[in-house]
Amino acid sequence: MSTFQAPKGTYDLTPPRSATFLAVREAIAAPLRDSGYGYIETPGFENVELFARGVGESTDIVTKEMYTLTTKGGDQLALRPEGTASVLRAALEANLHKAGNLPVKLWYSGSYYRYERPQAGRYRHFSQVGAEAIGTEDPVLDAELIILADQAYRSLGLRQFRILLNSLGDKECRPVYREALQTFLRDLDLDEETRRRIEINPLRVLDDKRADVQKQLTDAPKLRDYLCDACKAYHEEVRALLTAAGVVYEDDEKLVRGLDYYTRTTFEFVHDGLGSQSAVGGGGRYDGLSEMIGGPELPSVGWALGVDRTVLALEAEGIELDLPYTTSVYAVPLGEEARRVLFGVVTGLRRAGIAADFAFGGRGLKGAMKSANRSGARYALVAGERDLAEGVVQLKDMESGEQSAVPLTEVAAELAKRLG
Ligand code: ATP
Ligand code: MG
What we know:
Low-confidence stretches: none
Shape: elongated
CATH superfamily of the largest domain: Bira Bifunctional Protein, Domain 2
Bound molecules: adenosine-5'-triphosphate, magnesium ion
Number of domains: 2
Radius of gyration: 27 Å
Number of helices: 15
């Protein structure tokens, strides 16, 4: 193995592609910030117990995908495989829910770790931006979150995504359905592991990706037929709110998602250009999670969008984000004296808020101008001994090629004017 190789299932973000990742994170975060969500950051690892209880002992995430470790002090930790349990834990620890302002609306952005079989769109380290609205049961809140995710994707120019929507029922109606489903599933031709799953979490069998399993599920009892009146009314309200907002969605009664904590509203964003790793984001209501991790009753709803797959979706749709060049001015000094003077000019420009870079290493004019070109800078500043003797620098417009001498004392003002 080469020393210069990232671990299996991971990759590095390097320029210029890394700029797209930053822009995607920003595009997802912007509508949240504008809607009253506050930023939260939690550790990259938690006590393993939090995820075992919070994500669910029967989920793939906990049984197969979690990176666990024992510290030298004997603590059992896990690299976080998802964000919701940590965010809820942190909100409870900080008593945010007691500040008298429910829902507590939070957004986050970070790295997540799952020991998965690496393939296109599926990595062992990936990145999500997520949102959680804690402590309120209100269909408007469910709708708000779906609308904001839709807005984020649209602001990136994505069009080939679909929203799948379902209701998983609540603690009244879900158990009745669960039993009916178990009775149905026990008669099917399934492998040992899936048979075990029927007993632990039968809803997740509906999520099985294998075609031969899906074929047998055609006549499975539908959760929709078992929803209690309260759940039905709640779901109808969410649907109506989405429709009123002009957000198109598809009812998908098989959508259950891989985490145990979901109740009622459940949704997934899928993109049709991504092959089998088509889910770009997902979420839903998790009214029971707080109690599962030992907290008070706090009905909540949230989502997490995968940054990696969103970038792949952009590439699949051929969308190039309009990312402005980061450097506006590139300074090219010719000689020792010019180096000191121009570096002073660059420092001044930067302090004035003008993005500027510099040809380091005392390179010749030709090589330095190449770098100026590559930087995407709109203007180059070139100065040699004769310019300095006259107290000027040459200001070159990199687009038109036009060049003029500008007095040193006026460079900053002139550039500020030209750059608007
Ligand atoms: P999948 O069904 O593809 O395994 P999931 O249901 O496990 O997805 P979530 O836990 O809902 O995914 O995470 C939300 C989003 O995070 C996903 O829609 C996806 O975009 C992203 N994501 C999840 N796991 C990975 C991974 N291993 N690599 C890259 N992105 C991921
Ligand atoms: Mg998964």
